[in-house]
Amino acid sequence: MIIIAEKINGSIPSVAKAIEAKDEEFIKNLAKIQSEVSPDFLDVCASVEPEFEFETLKWMIELVQEVSDVPIAVDSPNAKLCADMIPFCKKPGMINSVSMEGTKVDDVFPVIADTKWEVAALLCDDKNGIPKTAEIRLKILEDLMAKAKEYNIDPSRIHIDPLVEMLCTSEDGINMLVDVMKEIKKRYPTIHITGAASNISFNLPARKVVNQAFVVLAMNAGMDSVILDPLNRDMRGLIYATEALLGEDMMCMEFIGAYRDGIFGVQKK
Amino acid sequence: MSKLDEVKELTEKGKQKLIADAVQGAVDEGVEATVILDTMIDAMAIVGDKFKRSEIFVPEMLMAAHTMKKGVAVIQPLLASGASTSLGTCIIGTVAGDLHDIGKNLVSLMIESAGFTMVDLGVDVPTDKFIEAINDTPECKIVALSCLLTTTMPALSETVKGLIDAGMKDKVKIVVGGAPITQEYSDEIGADGYAEDAASAAELAKAIIA
Description:
The complex is a heterodimer.
Chain A: E1 2-9, H1 13-20, H2 24-35, E2 41-45, H3 50-67, E3 72-75, H4 79-84, E4 94-100, H5 104-112, E5 118-125, H6 134-150, E6 158-161, H7 175-187, E7 192-193, H8 207-221, E8 225-228, H9 233-245, H10 253-260
Parallel strand pairs in A: 1-2, 1-8, 2-3, 3-4, 4-5, 5-6, 6-7
Helix pairs in contact in A: 2-3, 6-7, 8-9, 9-10
Chain B: H1 3-13, H2 16-28, H3 33-52, H4 58-81, E1 89-94, H5 102-113, E2 117-120, H6 127-136, E3 140-146, H7 153-165, E4 173-177, H8 183-189, E5 193-194, H9 198-208
Parallel strand pairs in B: 1-2, 1-3, 3-4, 4-5
């Protein structure tokens, strides 16, 4: 499972406060503690007014790289700004994210065409917003993949976010999403499927258990990348266990290794 | 680190992909194949010990044993040309009526890792078949009987009795094991030895022929 660590995000109040106060240590510490539990990417999102976003994001990225070697997932609703951050990143990371909305794909794909950068892509576009049906989401997938092909971006560099919506207003649970995920993997076996797992539990109590149940079912449908709090020991353990149950962890060695590294299980004092 | 130390460490850590190169490296440095083999056997003894102390888990022990197998494959041609390096042959099988093989396979792998040549008769093995195999294998020193169910414990007892009646105790040591088996039960039915887990089985095998 590809883990995108979510804690450095200006939409989290404590992080917003740190950004406001230019609290370098706070940001660096978040990078440090998340890096210790082996994530694949550190998401960095400023979530500030557009006129300050370039400087803020650049400042955050540079701080993170002072203490961590983990590749960065540059996170902004402004895809062009994400691409503008590439020169400040020491190693190839992930653009989070593009979609078929506006010029996002055209702003990003040419820039990452001949690089090792990966990209998260949402299955929405200008016409349909967040599409209600699997058919439309898959149609947008094909639009995206046509663009990817045009810029020679291999499916293995793409993390498709099929759009996780809240469960409490859904009429069929996650069945449609499961269909979409399975079909994506069928069409592009090497592509990654990602998602913001915690979206599923908006407006429900005891969100944690809903998120956990979702991750297990989504992994079974093909999700192999996720944005979450990497320090969430229960979720990390559940993910390693699920991978083993799905036959993706020979002799449970990854599971045992992560346990030994203290990523989940009984916490050593 | 010397190549030999590397072989030891890689075996202990179960690094299957790296072992062949390390063993070849040791051979290239002029280390005797038998010394390399002994190093891996020592490493497996440490692995078995860690398993008994619950410091490592079954898959880790399995990985280490598989790693050793890959390492041995590299020196096999060198070993074959010299004097016999095997401690002897051990015939293993799960007794009649019992179809369990995971534990038996693990025991087999660990005894093999201790330096024995294994003959695995599989599961649901009748007494006759054990006797036949012992007679066909002059270098056989141990016969290891596995039994996982309380309902097949009588079959274990009968197998041991059958082996004794056929005079097999003159030829081989009979050792037993399996979840419901205890040292007391082993003594009661007349076996020569009992081990409670795969790591202990490897130690028992070495000790019983010493």
